Amino acid sequence: MNQRILTIAEMIRTGMIVADIGTDHAQLPLWLLQQGKAEKAYACDVARGPLDTARKNIAACGFSEQIPVILSDGFDHVPADCDCAVIAGMGVRTAMDILTRARPRLKDLRQLLVQVNDDVPQMRRWVMENGMSVRDEMLVREHGHDYVILDIDTAVPAEYSEEQLLCGPVLTAEKKDMLRPYARRQADKLTAIMAKRGRDDDIQQDLQNRRMLWEKYAK
């Protein structure tokens, strides 16, 4: 299991009934059951192909009863006893669409973990605008890619500044050592984009403003 999925698994609180939405090959539910961190989990996916593989993997490990395999578009067919949901490894628009359609039932979750592959600030903004907050954040770097994992409190609202939305309210307040190398890479990436554009306009000014925020945490 890769470090990204392992970190998500370690963030899940013990004793939850977990729905892994977009489970692919069911690595996360299997690890949770094998480690005794959960007694039950749902392996959910919108595609039959990955679910067939997940079903075989689950059966091979002897967990067919504890890990039901469910064909589901987002939360559509996730059973009501689920109290923890994981949405990971997808684009921010897909994740926001899944969460928006499931908005009425999110308040019943005790834990919601989200990891999107692009535009994490937009994901944080969605959390804030929907009356939720970021309880915890973790950074994982693997095979040259950075992943930010959000632990979302669906019951407690929060207001975040543009700086917090960009860099992370928990990362900037409590995990600056973890944030520093990531901030350096983000600042360098913006420097390269600005040099390539070579124009003095509103977009360039926005890039500069974001670069300055990342530079603050890269030191």
Brief digest:
With 219 residues, the protein is α/β, with parallel strands linked by helices. The chain is 48% helix and 21% strand.
Question: What would your notes on this structure say?
Answer:
The chain has 219 residues and is α/β, with parallel strands linked by helices. It has 2 domains: 155 residues, Rossmann fold (3-Layer(aba) Sandwich); 45 residues. Helices cover 48% and strands 21% of the residues. The chain has a 7-stranded mixed β-sheet, with helices on both faces. Helix 1 crosses helix 2. The chain is elongated, with a radius of gyration of 19 Å.
Strands, helices and their partners?
Blueprint: H1 3-11, E1 17-21, H2 27-34, E2 40-45, H3 48-60, E3 69-71, E4 84-90, H4 92-101, H5 103-106, E5 111-116, H6 120-129, E6 133-142, E7 145-153, H7 162-167, H8 169-174, H9 176-197, H10 202-218
Parallel strand pairs: 1-2, 1-4, 2-3, 4-5
Antiparallel strand pairs: 5-7, 6-7
Helix pairs in contact: 1-2, 9-10
Features:
2 domains; alpha/beta; 7 strands; Rossmann fold; 219 residues
Number of domains: 2
Shape: elongated
**Under the CATH scheme, which architecture of the largest domain would be assigned?**
3-Layer(aba) Sandwich
> CATH topology of the largest domain, which one?
Rossmann fold
Q: Count every beta strand, where a strand is a DSSP E run of 2 or more residues.
A: 7
Return the structural class. alpha/beta
Low-confidence runs: none
